[in-house]
Write a structure and sequence with these properties.
The complex is a heterotrimer of chains A (303), B (328) and C (329). With 303 residues, chain A is mainly alpha-helical. Chain A is 77% helix and 0% strand. Chain A is built from eleven helices and no strands. In chain A, helix 8 crosses helix 9. Chain A is elongated and about 75 Å long. In chain B, helix 8 packs across helix 9, helix 8 packs across helix 11 and helix 11 runs antiparallel to helix 13. The radius of gyration of chain B is 24 Å and the shape is globular. The mean pLDDT of chain B is 80. Helix content of chain C is 31%, strand content 25%. With 329 residues, chain C is of the alpha/beta class. In chain C, helix 7 links the parallel strand 7 and strand 8. The chains are: A mainly alpha (303), B mainly alpha (328), C alpha/beta (329). Chains in contact: A-B, A-C, B-C. At the B-C interface, helix 10, helix 11 and helix 14 of B face helix 2, helix 3 and helix 4 of C.
């Protein structure tokens, strides 16, 4: 490349980045106006911070046996102890890491799979489309939790298995959405123009279709995090969680097994669930706000 | 395409999906690590006669493909295998009995409740969008959506059973009690149904509500809604006659798929409330490694969902005059 | 005898980028049995005028000032429930592109009957449907098709249905918003003739909104030319077409080919209509006006009656009167 071409492409890149930046800034201004959205983002940030500083925040190590079992909340143990004598408050703080990790990773994988399938299906059509859509149909009809339970039971109680299992049941929504978006974007004039000047399929997909599909995929990913966190807690509650990674769902599993309900040990039951709920609400609120802003249909109003 | 062609095409797709589900089912339980069927044969709980009979029946000493064919043959003759836990008891028996009824009642009633409430509140919220009614419904829905189903069940039990003894702690009927007549039985049953029903209905209300609200808002942007307003029709007519009829179509079409979520929710709820249904059976089977039962339930659910989603799609096509009339 | 009087109507839409002054100071009168043609480019505010009259503005639209007098009552001051009573019984509307203006899942006869039954308490269901059949005959549709669905009709037939529906409660005034724009040319003619006949037969008053001047020429008694939310010229049809006084009107007429006479180059108006969030200062047309002078960019021209019942909003009406090319056509 000559010097000129280099500086030009550098300038073009800078321009592209700055126009992206302005759009993001504009988006943020709109987003700030949504109260639900702001509550959501605050919750998410709060939990992310907790996940990082848990080791410093927690008074005890979560796996350490530090007290008599089944203690109600006291000064020493803010939320009491569990069935073997571990401090519940510490367990909750440390559990944040697991829930967030599973939620983010599982959703990311699910969205990646779904987007790939949706793009391939929507862009290349034909027999590939039919096959992929039949596979998608199959996975849609599989009841998620039972399938996850079976896979978890067969593959073993491991956190990565859980992530895999959640991802493999959660990609279908994204796939369908991406496919329909791809179909409509494909018809747009600039895509036709790109094709007519000889651009290859992969180029068109990456440069034209993906950026347009991205906002809705992102919103989908966020709600996917909610589903993933809830799924993980469900799997753990039913006894298939990873015993080496005690998540909030696992705490509830132990609570149930130890008969906390029948004995009214509410400190064992309520706090873990509240944590799950708050994290999920954080992402759910954010996803709702995002959807309101990004979804083109919702902008045209008559009333 | 005409209605008949559409129905035909959908049925074909459904059959393909079911075939794929059957195949997946087979693969899952034969090829997965720790081959369960081989394990079944080596299971100490099994007596030698049954073992030999099973090996012969399922061809466990034959190559995989032959096993598959045998599996299909058994399947279509209604043979789903034999339980590990309840030694010798056919899986068909276990599934298609009391448990199925209990689950259907629980799932059916909660789905109905969630759907009906979701539609009505969704319509009202859309009509009053932006107001407090709307925003609080949205917040309520998002919050209930974010609650783990099983935890909500546990909360209800804690509240309604432990602290105020309004609702029984577990089961479908009070154990050990002999009921004098059907009426007594039914009221005891219903008493036990309340808490799990509320749990499931509240958990699923949110999803239906948000979808309905979105759909109605979509419908509001259509030209024919302006016409309806211009005609000076009453608000009720505009909403429930003009808007809702169009919005219900997409709602019905997602019902089939929603069944899968309901099954997941039912699994957890039944476990928490010890409700004697298929959901709890799934949990028990997983815990006890009763693979034949799992396989059977799994398959049945997949077929159920395909059928339900087929019905939903066909109902949609039937209700929508545009599809029904074409090419007639 | 005026049926409807609009005086100084101003309507704004409130958007994220600021208020859009969609209609500013528009005044006109519709007389009994007459057609008032409202013409202008897309986006000039004509539909907003119609929606303001009917009270059908979207949630971000509001009438900011003016009066709309129907039967000695000011419609602007009425609330939604009062307006509901007037809709369809006194004024009805025919929308553009009847493709989507009819509810696709309800049969057409039902959509007509429902408004009859809603508005007239004493009418029975049988009587309402009888009237539906009568209306069908009026618009030359087969009465056997009263229970058909909208998608079963062609574009022209759907428009006939819309007309039948608009007449269901025997309104005094019908507002037609681009009633034939979406149809092919031959059908356009049929529908236009149908509308003219019906109007005469039923002694209807009409506001006809369109961007197509030829339609205006064929149907209207009085004409109003709108540009960028303002009424720039208002007179009877003959005067508008034979002696247009506003440069925009002249340009619009000049943009239409005539099949008689010599071939000439078509004039077109360079530029595009202004952004109504921040309309141009002074005369809103001045950026595109070939005769604009300094004063046009600073002062809004007054809306003056320059000839008998012929209103114009332009600073230089008198000077432009004598320019060649603007003579009788």
């Amino acid at each position: 490349m000559t010097l000129d071409a280099q500086t030009t492409s550098g300038a073009l890149l800078r321009e592209r980045v700055s126009s992206h930046a302005t759009r993001v800034k504009g988006f943020w201004t709109i987003y700030k106006g949504s109260r639900i959205g702001m509550v959501g983002v605050s919750l998410v940030l709060a939990f992310i911070i907790i996940a990082f500083v848990a080791p410093w925040l927690a008074p005890y190590h979560p796996r350490a046996l530090v007290g008599t079992p089944f203690l109600p909340p006291t000064e020493e143990h803010l939320l009491g102890t569990d069935q073997v004598g571990r401090d519940i408050y510490s367990e909750l703080l440390w559990g944040t890491r697991i829930s967030l990790m599973v939620g983010l990773l599982a959703s990311a994988f699910a969205v990646a799979i779904g987007t790939t399938i949706g793009l391939l299906s929507g862009y290349y059509r034909g027999p590939l489309d039919s096959v992929l859509m039949r596979i998608t149909d199959l996975f849609i009809t599989l009841p998620a939790l039972p399938f996850m339970l079976i896979l978890a039971a067969l593959l073993g109680r491991n956190i990565w298995n859980i992530i895999f299992v959640i991802a493999i049941t959660g990609w279908t929504g994204t796939a369908r959405m991406v496919r329909s978006q791809t179909l409509s974007i494909k018809e747009r004039p600039y895509v036709e123009a790109a094709r007519s000047i000889g651009a290859r399929g992969s180029q068109i997909v990456i440069r034209h279709i993906l950026p347009n599909v991205f906002p809705l995929v992102f919103a989908n990913a966020i709600i996917g995090i909610v589903d993933a966190i809830l799924a993980e807690s469900g799997i753990s509650f039913l006894g298939l969680g990873d015993p080496t990674q005690p998540s909030w769902g696992m705490i509830l599993y132990y609570a149930n097994k130890a008969g906390a309900l029948a004995t009214g040990r509410w400190w064992f039951i309520i706090p873990p669930g509240v944590c799950i709920m708050l994290v999920a609400i954080g992402f759910a609120f954010s996803s709702y706000s995002l959807d309101q802003i990004l979804n083109p249909r919702l902008r045209k109003r008559r009333w | 395409m005409g209605f008949k062609e559409y129905v035909g095409k959908r049925i074909l797709q459904g059959i393909v999906t079911v075939m794929l589900a059957i195949t997946l089912n087979f693969i899952l339980f034969r090829i997965m690590p720790g081959d369960p069927t081989q394990a079944m044969v080596g299971d100490p709980r099994m007596d030698p006669e049954t073992r030999i009979a099973l090996i012969a029946k399922f061809g466990l000493d034959k190559p995989l493909l032959e096993q598959f064919v045998l599996y299909l043959y058994n399947l279509f003759s209604g043979e789903l295998g034999v339980s590990f836990v309840q030694i010798g008891r056919p899986v068909m028996d276990i599934i298609f009995g009391r448990k199925l009824i209990n689950t259907v009642i629980l799932m059916g009633s909660s789905m109905f409740l969630a759907f009906a409430l979701g539609i009505i509140v969704g319509v009202i919220a859309a009509w009053k969008h932006g107001t407090k009614v709307d925003m609080s419904s949205i917040v309520f829905s998002l919050v209930t959506y974010s609650m783990p189903v099983f935890w909500f069940g546990m909360l209800l039990l804690l509240l309604l059973s432990y602290y105020i003894n309004v609702v029984p702690i577990a089961g479908t009927v009070t154990p050990g009690v002999a009921h004098a007549n059907f009426f007594e039985y039914a009221s005891d049953y219903l008493h036990h149904l309340i808490a799990p029903l509320i749990t499931l209905a509240v958990s699923f209300f949110g999803g239906y509500f948000l979808f309905m609200r979105d759909t109605i808002l979509d419908v509001f942007t259509e030209d024919y809604m302006l016409t309806a307003r211009a005609k000076g029709l009453s608000d009720r007519k505009i909403l429930f006659k003009h808007a809702m009829r169009n919005a219900l179509l997409p709602m019905v079409s997602i019902m089939g798929v929603h069944l899968t979520f309901l099954i997941s929710g039912a699994t957890m709820t039944e476990t928490v409330f010890s409700w004697d249904g298929l959901g709890r059976l799934i949990y028990d089977s997983v815990r006890d490694a009763d693979y034949p039962v799992l396989q059977g339930i799994f398959l049945m659910m997949a077929i159920l969902v395909v059928v339900a989603s087929l019905c939903a799609d066909i109902t949609c096509a039937y209700l929508d005059p545009r599809i029904k009339e074409a090419a007639e | 005898m005026p049926i409807l009087e609009v005086r100084d109507l101003s309507t704004h839409y409130f958007t994220l980028q600021g208020p859009v002054e969609a209609v500013d100071g528009v005044s006109f009168t519709v007389d009994a049995g007459q057609t008032f043609g409202l013409a202008g480019e897309s986006g000039c505010g004509k539909t907003t005028v119609a929606l303001s009259i009917m009270g059908l503005l979207p949630s971000n639209g509001r009438v900011m000032g003016g009066q709309i007098t129907l039967d000695e009552e000011d419609l602007v001051k009425k609330d939604e429930s009062e307006l509901k009573k007037i809709r369809w019984t006194k004024i009805s509307m025919i929308f553009q592109g009847a493709m989507n203006a009819l509810n696709p899942v309800i049969n057409v006869g039902e959509q007509i009957a429902e408004v009859i039954l809603e508005k007239e308490e004493k009418v029975t269901k049988a009587e309402a449907w009888e009237r539906v059949r009568e209306l069908y005959e009026l618009v030359e549709l087969e009465t056997s098709r009263v229970k058909d669905f909208p998608h079963e009709f062609s574009g022209g037939m759907r428009q006939r249905v819309m007309i039948a529906m608009a007449l269901a409660c025997y309104p005094k005034l019908v507002i037609s918003d681009e009633p034939i724009t979406a149809l092919d040319v031959i059908v356009q003619n049929q529908i236009l003739n149908l509308m003219k006949n019906l109007q005469k037969k039923l002694n209807l008053s009409q506001i006809l909104i369109t961007h197509d001047l030829s339609v205006i020429a064929e149907t209207s008694d009085k004409v109003g030319i709108m540009y960028a939310g303002k009424l720039v010229e208002y007179a009877d049809a003959t005067s508008i077409f034979k002696r247009p006084l506003h440069p925009y009107t002249t340009a619009l007429i000049g943009a239409y080919p005539s099949i008689v006479g010599e071939k000439r180059t078509l004039n077109f108006i360079p530029g595009a209509p202004p952004n109504l969030i921040s309309p141009p200062k002074g005369c809103r047309f001045h950026p595109r006006c070939p005769y604009a002078k300094n004063i046009c960019s600073t002062e809004q021209p007054g809306y003056l009656e320059k000839e008998a019942e012929h209103f114009v909003a332009c600073h230089f009406v008198d000077e432009l009167r004598n320019i060649p090319g603007l003579e009788d056509r």
